[in-house]
């Protein structure tokens, strides 16, 4: 009888906390997470300055860690105290609250509109400080500072480099009076700080980052309807056309790992084939020669491409060494495998996969060729890997609306990010930015 | 498989006839002959049995009526022309042959399913199917421009079978 | 992923003696001897003769002291603990149970404290969802 009551009580607590998490006004909805995440307390930071802080530093860090699914941050109303320095830390209190880690800190204004943020990471069991850092930046870099702190905390605990300071490029589509507007945005990895870079009434597609994260190649459509590849320079804001041909497709750009070449698809000679352009002189090399569709190239290394080909009758993924005619088919599971994207390590790809039950995101370990399906939505596409290989961002269409979503590379964690835009598509995760 | 063989036979017959026909450009026919059997599968989409084509040419009226439909539809992941699509295109063939200065843009589209870049190429293949068909029926290639928007410009912005069927299309757009 | 075994500091000196399952209030009350609980506020514990048993659980327990002047204290290892009202203890107990279900509470009451004052605390604990309450005593 006792035990029954106890279990009911625990079940109710779990249910209640689940409901509370869902009804919070965070922009990110967490669909799935790990069973045993790290319990971490991000104590609200104090602002030792006039007026109010630019925004809640600790909230940004908390949301970042929570989004990975590897962390279960303690809600601040569950904390007995909000220490900001070690002297006021009561370690037994955090042990009683079952916390594996505690982050405390403070922010204060500096000269010339700058701010300094000090943060410390503690293990309440060993009562040791694991990390203690001060970061300084402009007031308008507040979120960036929080992302930097999140990167450091994440890396200290998991041993894996954090990707909170990276960017995501995507295309937002809005219905206008006469048609649709398409805008290329670059946002922080958490979806905030979005900045428009290129707008068109005609579609935009396939943004792809240069390895130094300073350029984005993407696809626009000329007035005559032919697609063309452009490169946006993020330092200057300049946009130049690098591949165009009237009456033909020029699309699906991908920078080589050394940043010196651009692979793309063109139908300039009839069928859609893959070409590589030397960006220093514009010289073209045709890589595939096949009547069937060859498209969506990405680089395994500076000499090897993976791409989608319809040569077997349905789209499947192939690997080809540039200069060779010996295309090797990589995917055999499922009737549709397309749009491969290569992990930074070069030994894993993600793709769009269909085995008869909707279009999902899947991953394949190239060492053992095992394909694992990561998502279960009816219509997912455009996967792009985080530079640390931990997460995949993709576009998920449900009920006619396309939104960005994330899934961890093991399929255990899934998030959806509602957007203020009508439709968001074609996400591309940037390389590390520092 | 037998259907495939039949198509092959049809292709060979069609190619021979077209090669002898002065109005058909020879470069396209040559391409079809030189390439592999896999090419055959693609190229058959534009071909009709021999006598039907001759009848259509013989019965072409002096003044062609304005075509009633300017969209043709496709099956999923296919760029093969249905008989309905062919009858729509026959009207355009007649019109374009009698209006040599008329120019059309053949704009290929797909439904939203699958990968956007693959769909861009698939949309182009649909538009090229239409172009090949009309070219083989006597429309000059200089009268036709092929483009594709893939899945990016749906006619119906919804996610259901009906909307998808409406979106898998080639739009025939006359230029002024 | 996490190394739970080594992280928690065992409180080896606390031993559990025969416990009573009090059905009426759904409380498991047990008596503990705590000769090593030297830290914390000054409390003169009742002296009893018991046969100590080793604790199976090495997890952290919440310790609430009731001093001779009938004030409540949370034993958290703070340098200068302040007395806290019952409502604040209740808030903390609920936070603990939310995040650490099954945590036991040890009541460290001065032997001169009126019975009613201890019962008041125990009723609050029971209402907050605590299922295990230990009464800390001193061995003879």
From TrEMBL, chain C:
Pfam families (alphabetical): ExbD (PF02472)
InterPro entries: ExbD, Tol-Pal_TolR
Gene Ontology molecular-function annotations: transmembrane transporter activity
Membrane topology field: Single-pass membrane protein
Record keywords, A-Z: Cell cycle, Cell division, Cell inner membrane, Cell membrane, Membrane, Transmembrane, Transmembrane helix
A GO-annotated cellular component: plasma membrane
GO biological process: cell division; protein transport
Predominant subcellular localization, coarse grouping: membrane
Coiled coil regions in record: none
Compartments it resides in: Cell inner membrane; Cell membrane
Spans through the membrane: 12-37
Signal sequence residues: none
Binding partners and assembly: The Tol-Pal system is composed of five core proteins: the inner membrane proteins TolA, TolQ and TolR, the periplasmic protein TolB and the outer membrane protein Pal. They form a network linking the inner and outer membranes and the peptidoglycan layer.
Function text: Part of the Tol-Pal system, which plays a role in outer membrane invagination during cell division and is important for maintaining outer membrane integrity.
Similarity section: Belongs to the ExbD/TolR family.
Protein's recorded name: Tol-Pal system protein TolR
């Amino acid at each position: 009888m006792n035990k029954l009551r106890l279990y009911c009580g625990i079940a109710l607590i779990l249910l209640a906390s689940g409901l509370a998490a869902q009804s919070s006004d965070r922009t990110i909805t967490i669909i799935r997470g790990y069973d045993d995440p790290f319990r971490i307390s991000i104590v609200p930071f104090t602002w030792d300055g006039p007026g109010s802080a630019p925004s809640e530093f600790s909230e940004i860090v908390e949301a970042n860690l929570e989004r990975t699914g590897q962390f279960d941050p303690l809600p601040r109303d569950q904390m007995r105290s909000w220490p900001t320095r070690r002297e006021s830390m009561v370690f037994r209190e955090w042990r009683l609250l079952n916390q594996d880690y505690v982050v405390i800190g403070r922010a204060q204004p500096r000269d010339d509109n700058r701010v300094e943020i000090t943060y410390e990471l503690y293990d309440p069991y060993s009562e040791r400080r694991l990390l203690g850092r001060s970061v300084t930046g402009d007031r308008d870099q507040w979120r960036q500072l929080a992302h930097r702190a999140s990167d450091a905390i994440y890396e200290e605990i998991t041993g894996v480099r954090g990707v909170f300071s990276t960017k995501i490029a995507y295309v937002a589509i809005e219905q206008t009076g006469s048609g649709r507007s398409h805008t290329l945005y670059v946002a922080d990895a958490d979806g905030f700080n979005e900045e428009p870079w290129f707008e068109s009434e005609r579609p935009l597609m396939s943004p792809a980052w240069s390895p130094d994260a300073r350029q984005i190649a993407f696809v626009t459509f000329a007035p005559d309807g032919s697609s063309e590849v452009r490169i946006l320079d993020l330092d200057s804001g300049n946009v130049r056309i690098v591949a165009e041909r009237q009456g033909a497709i020029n699309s699906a750009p991908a920078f080589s790992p050394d940043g010196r070449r651009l692979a793309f698809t063109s139908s300039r000679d009839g069928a859609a084939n893959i070409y590589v352009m030397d960006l220093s002189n514009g010289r073209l090399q045709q890589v595939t020669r096949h009547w069937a569709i060859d498209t969506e190239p990405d680089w395994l290394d500076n000499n090897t491409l993976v791409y989608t080909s319809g040569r077997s009758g349905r789209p499947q993924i192939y690997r080809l060494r540039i200069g060779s005619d010996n295309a090797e088919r990589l995917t055999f599971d499922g009737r549709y495998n397309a749009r491969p994207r290569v992990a930074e390590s070069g030994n894993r790809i993600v793709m769009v996969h269909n085995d008869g039950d909707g279009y999902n995101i899947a991953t394949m370990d190239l060492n053992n060729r095992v394909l694992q399906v990561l998502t279960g939505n009816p219509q997912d596409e455009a996967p792009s890997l985080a530079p640390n290989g931990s997460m995949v961002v993709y576009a998920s269409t449900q009920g006619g609306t396309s939104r960005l979503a994330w899934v961890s590379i093991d399929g255990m964690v899934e998030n959806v990010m509602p957007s203020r835009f009508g439709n968001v598509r074609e996400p591309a995760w940037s390389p590390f930015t520092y | 498989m037998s259907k495939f063989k039949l198509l092959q036979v049809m292709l060979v017959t069609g190619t021979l006839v077209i090669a002898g026909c002065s109005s058909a450009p020879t470069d396209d026919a040559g391409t079809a002959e030189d390439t592999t059997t896999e090419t055959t599968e693609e190229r058959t989409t534009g071909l009709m049995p021999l006598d039907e084509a001759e009848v259509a040419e013989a019965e072409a009226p002096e003044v062609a009526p304005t075509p009633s439909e300017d969209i043709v539809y496709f099956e999923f992941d296919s760029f093969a022309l249905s008989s309905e699509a062919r009858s729509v295109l026959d009207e355009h063939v007649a019109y374009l042959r009698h209006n040599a200065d008329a120019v059309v843009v053949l704009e290929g589209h797909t439904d939203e399913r699958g990968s956007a870049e693959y769909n861009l190429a698939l949309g182009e293949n649909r538009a090229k199917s239409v172009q090949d068909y009309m070219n083989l029926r006597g429309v000059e290639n200089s009268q036709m421009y092929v483009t594709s928007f893939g899945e990016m410009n749906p006619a119906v912005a919804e996610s259901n079978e009906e909307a998808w069927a409406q979106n898998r299309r080639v739009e025939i757009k006359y230029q002024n | 992923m996490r190394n739970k075994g080594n992280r928690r500091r065992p409180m080896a000196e606390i031993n559990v003696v025969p416990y009573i399952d009090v059905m009426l209030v759904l409380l498991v009350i047990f008596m503990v001897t705590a000769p090593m609980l030297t830290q914390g506020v000054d409390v003169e514990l009742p002296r009893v003769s018991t046969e100590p048993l080793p604790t199976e659980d090495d997890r952290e327990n919440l310790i609430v002291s009731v001093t001779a002047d009938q004030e409540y204290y949370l034993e958290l290892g703070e340098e200068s603990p302040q007395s806290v009202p019952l409502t604040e203890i209740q808030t903390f107990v609920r936070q603990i149970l939310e995040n650490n279900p099954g945590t036991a509470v040890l009541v460290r009451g001065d032997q001169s404290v009126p019975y009613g004052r201890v019962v008041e605390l125990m009723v609050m604990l029971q209402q907050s969802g605590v299922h295990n309450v230990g009464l800390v005593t001193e061995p003879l």
